[in-house]
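We treat protein structure as text, and this decision shapes the records that our systems exchange. The tokens are whole numbers drawn from a learned vocabulary of local backbone shapes. One such record is reproduced below, unchanged from the form in which we store it:
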Amino acid sequence: MKKINTWLIASLSVFGLTLAGCETDNGSNPILQKPTSFVLNTPANAATNVYDLANSSVVYVTCSQPNYGFPASTIYSVQAALSPTFNENNYTTLATTSTSARVPINALELNDAILEMWPAANPGVEMPDAPIPVWIRLQAQITGGDGLGLIKSNVIELSQVLVIKDAPLTMPTEMYLLNPAGTWVRMGQVSGADDFYAIAYLPTDAGFKFGVKSGEAALGTISIATDGDSGAAVADDGTGGQHVQAATAGWYIVTIKPSIVDNAYQFELGFYPPNVYVIGNSMGNWDEDVNKFTVPADGTGSFVSPAMTAAGELRMYARIGSRAWYTTEFTLYNGTIFYRDQYNIASNWATDLGAAYSVEGAAGQKVTLDFTAGTGSVQ
């Protein structure tokens, strides 16, 4: 009988170092080198071990850190494919990442990825009951560097991966809202919780849908927990499916709390006033629920902040009931609204996630946010 392997154990230490002044060498700062190799180690007995995803929570692989010229803090992502040749359309990047060179592959994430990729890779062929080969590579980049030091490893083969054909549902790590304008918008996730939220204009003559993947409406039981004077109700969308429609037109913060009961999704929705605020050094104070954005009169307008009173990093949030302001915080990243989600912003965006995620304002400037398009600017 072949050995059932639930994880691979190896250890390799990576020491973190804050990246500063890498453009020039002043005698004390490290110089960033463009790495030319990044080695993902082939596990022992990878050709014969059976990786039983039903009985494993995680599979570990190990790698050597890319040679950046110094021991930089690095984040690793796992990419899986059903072919040894990766191209832009045939692989899936798993959600779980690692800052250690002992990298976990989440078994359920890998299983879901295989099930999703199988029809395109094997048209008309049913998933077999026997183990199948899966190919793995890693992607590495310097933590908080916005793609700095990005490099992909060699590809390894796990020759015998036993897939759960009727896989249990997993709690979503992302959700998307299809607003009445016809745009799929990525929702923010409440920090420290499973809830998701989006700010959307809801007319009375059109409904909205949502899903755990962009472009794909979710299937499950929908209930309205907090109405918020929206008169929202679940209705037939005219095509045999369901959508949610408001009886009172206007802007709302829409919240969705997913759960899984008997391997089926249930979604609890809430509707709150569209209260969005800016706080912090750029406003000269940290008083909550004071510096409120103006709300556009219809679905075509933008939210506009009060004028900033000082220079400093922008801190913006949506007010959802009694939740702490920082749990529903967001920023702008390359002109796109970027939600805090589960990122740990202990000090500020610049320090904890990187300068590209930090928006610096100046006295007299205002922030404009287009939640329908998911964009924003400071002027």
